[in-house]
Amino acid sequence: MKAANTYVGSPVERVEDWRFLRGKGQYIDDYKCEGLWHAAFVRSAIAHGTIRRIDATAALAQPGVHALITAADVPRPIPTIPFRRPNATMDPYAQPVIAADKVRYVGEPVAVVLAASAALAEDALARVVVDIDPLTPIVDWQASEQGRTLLFENTESNLATVFTATCGDAEAAFRAADYVRRETFGVQRQTALPMETRGLLARWNAQTGCLGVSGAAKLPFFNRRALAKMMGLAESAVDYIELDVGGGFGARGEFYPEDFLVAFAARQFGYPIKWIEDRREHLMTIAHAREMHGEIEIACRRDGSIVGLRGTIHVDIGAYMRPNGTTSVRNVAQFLAGPYHVPNIHVESRAVVSNKTPAGTYRGPGRYEGCFFCERMIDLAAGDLGIDRLEIRRRNLLTAADMPYKLPTLVPDDGFGKTACDSGDYRTAFDRCVETSVWHEKRDLVGKLIDGRFHGLGIACFIEGGASGPRENARVEVTADGTVAVYVGSSAIGQGLETVMAQIAADALEIPLECIRVLHGSTHYLREGFGSYGSRATVMGGSAIMLAAKNLLAAFADAAAARLSVPVADLTIAEGVATAPDGRVVTLADIAGGESLVGEGSFSNSKPTYTYGSAIAYVAVDPKTGHVEVLDYVVVDDVGRVINPLTLHGQVTGATVQGLGSVFSEHLPYDADGQLLVGSLADYMVPLATDYPNLRAISMQLYPSPNNPLGAKGAGEGGIIPVGGAISNAIASALGPLGVQPRELPLTPPRLWELINDAGSSATSAQQPT
Amino acid sequence: MKLPSFAYACPATLSEAVALLAAHDGEAKPLAGGQSLMPMMAFRVALPSLLVDLRKIPDLKQIQISDDGVRLGSMVRWRDIEDDVHLAKAHPLLIAAIAHVAHYQIRNRGTVGGSVAHADPAAEMPGVAIACEAEITAVGKGGNRIIKAADFFLGALTTALEPDEIITEIRLPPWPAGRRFAFQEFAQRRGDFAMSGVALYYDPDADGRVGNAHVGVIGVADRPQRLATVEAILNGRTISDATLAAAAEAASAAVDPHDDIHASAAYRRSLTGTLVERALRSAAG
Amino acid sequence: MSIQFEVNGKVVSIAVEPRMTLADCLRHELGLTGTHVGCEHGVCGACTVLVNGDAVRSCLMLAVQAEGSKVVTVEGLSNDQELTALQTSFRKHHALQCGFCTPGMITTAHALLTEEPDCDADRVREVLAGNICRCTGYISIVEAVLDARSAYKKSDGNRP
User: Fold this and answer.
1) How confident is the model at residue A767 (pLDDT cuts 50, 70, 90)?
2) Best of B104, B111, B193 to mutate (most C CBs within 10 Å, chain C)
């Protein structure tokens, strides 16, 4: 990019804000249209059972209730939700779009009520009688692995898939190692909880045979393809329209049963159908995440260099394998070693089904969990070996000399089985983090009881994979008035896409930001698109836009040359103006006024980017209440290239606070009958403004990625990844004198108190952390 | 979570309101601030056939401070208590306790009467009422009656009120000069329901010995409770480390909480002891 | 039931069922979709509006209870020409991402700053603890509200 504009790298205030601040955003529930029917879902109240009977007579007799759909109305075979990355073993575990004979989790859709208003539809739910014969529910991974009760016929186990990550020879390394330690860790079931619940509005045009679905997010193109196939329609007959979206974090945009059922109802009855999920429903049916149990082993030399990592990780994916169900499973295996140089790895990650809500992705899926496992192990090893906790990490972090660093190979290969860390010297972020933190200032207070609280310090280091392929597409079009429309396949989920993409386009075209309008995510904008997930939008969408801009400028040059009757090579193109040697000019608007002026770009990528960083937490633990105050937390990352420091800082801070909620207060527990015990935001406790005021986030751009023209690395998820490790290590160091070693999240005050109580108050032989 | 259907009335007088409640055979409910009732209706666990809005009824919003204590009209909001410049001195324990109630927006609508009638086991106002031996005036079809706090809270979300009765006033006994007090609660986040909470006061004699100890606790039973064994330990003693330890131990032993998804019984028991100790330390100054 | 009340300075008369919340009435009967519904059980604060100057959870109020009141929504705290001082401060500090909680933050902050233009960071955090944000992590929102205090300290009572 020429130096004419410098939007990229500047803290440009967001264009989205104009409408959001005035309450003029357009979220799905803000839409209505004539003749709308409202949908509500009859959901199983039983975790595992056989459906005997559905009787809707009383419901249908209510005024304003129009119709009811059950499996009986859906043509056989009942469609199942496809996988994004299929493999040989998963087919039997796919979810039917509506429960037909069996129900497998509380909340599974059993019927759809259609009524004149959302309130009437909800009223009708209580009048639908559903008889289910209960079967034994499986509610934990041990029972699932044991396999006495199988959730699916035609299977021999509840194991939907296994991923194995290997490099080197782990067995040999462990046999020969100076030091080996084995531990078991657990992360709790939780969920992304965007502030806007899900919603859909589907319209069927019987004349044209076309279906429009509004309320898309994250993966509109994949979802459109899936829906078109399920409904026997050509893709071109289905339009997915993205509006403003109130957060995603990995959970919104999964293909859910409701995505089919609402569309199906629209076609079945010929009326537009609207469904807005309520919050109780949301907690029960949105993708859950992170429930994992890891048996982890580390092998080191006496000097603390890590020679091997092994593990068996059991991932409870809930009742069905859904499109994003494999992501956390494969990530925790492939990225368990995080940013560290570990030459011998063997990790097996096992996805088992259970009678709970199906799991999917949540920011940094599998990475947050893996970082927690690995960083706890490193602290324990450091303690055993008598090595300083900072020093042991610095010794093992990847350096520039290691790049590109091959990460363990993953089998089965889901398209990303082979990947390598692209660039960076991970010690730079580490050093900056240590220097910025209060580590050195406060290290003498570690383990001390001050004013009734134990003080502690913890560190965790991470990598964040981004920019996954295969590609993203963009089209840049100049309109007759000289403004530019940028169409991109990425989706907006609140991350400032419209601004960041506009910055990139404005710099590439050398025109003012105000002249650009970014249109995103809807399937009618582009022939093909991919979406926003895995921290890919800026890199993939941005790079596609750069290519499209380049092609546009080339087309402009050709058209200008023809208009001015000079050879293209003689033209000077700058800031949207083509100047001939004799001074005559032609602008973008001049050309666009006469003919179409378009550039298309497609950026393909098979090499993900890896942002890397470190985080340090300083905590005070009240042993009597179990309350932990985060006195200071600093996270430093190197994102390769900063497009907008304002929005980037927002992403890292927001992700960090989500991570703190994960560590301290968020939990979706089930009872032995498979009943979810949390049904409201009073019980699902996310951070509030008073909880974590002492956070600092610093982003650097030291080592650009060689894998894309921007040099940028995906950075939307990094903030969340190290939180579990940094905080639990800090708490362990604080409670060193009591011998408390956290191994299970969350560390709510009552749970931490139990650990403290169980450990007793006598100092143990545990090594004092340094 | 749309609300279920119901009829709505907004009577201009108390007797009309009582008559409406009486006529609906237990299926009607008074509506004050709605901050507790409305969520229950949104979850469809409360399904009244009629809501009787109390907002137009006169004389329910006064705050009176006099020789017989503090009288709070049942429709007094948390916000009104905050705004009253005299209450900080007239009843500092009330002020300390209600500082923990919910959040800013809820405090603009939630009422004293509503909280007491709703009787959530972890709510602060019922805790203050029990600790301070408040008197609750209720008006029903049979006329007025005064119910002592100790007789008022019968269980979780259950009170001595008849279906036709409306609370009109809560009286807290007078607060003497020299009284020591504290309110301590522990919740996971600001504004959440307490996992345990302690409201206490005592009147020290000239030698600093505790007299007239009143120790109330919330969040550890199906209703707020007075801890008589703790009070017995405190009365006649000075506040020392030994007294505090004994009081804390007695408090833990005196309560019998249940396990729930947020905390174990053992935790709540221990927490109660800790909070009693911290409250006493704070009260003693 | 027929009710009449003032919304953003205009008197409206409408017929609603008793069970309609003020939030749904504003959104669906009056087309003021700036007020958002995030939970419908009084926890998240996205639905906050001002009723007679007080910030309240409009999902916990019945529309019929608004009879005779003055209601102000985020639309009533905005104009088409430019951003207000509070909105400008939010934008400057990047105090919003997805925008869903934002109207509730704006109305709450406006109520707080109107009454307490000298509030400190602890007070701002305490008040905003009644509004859940999942995107920002709150720090930028607190900064934005603090930065807007000067606009509310005008002694001539000119409300921005």
Assistant:
1) very low
2) B104
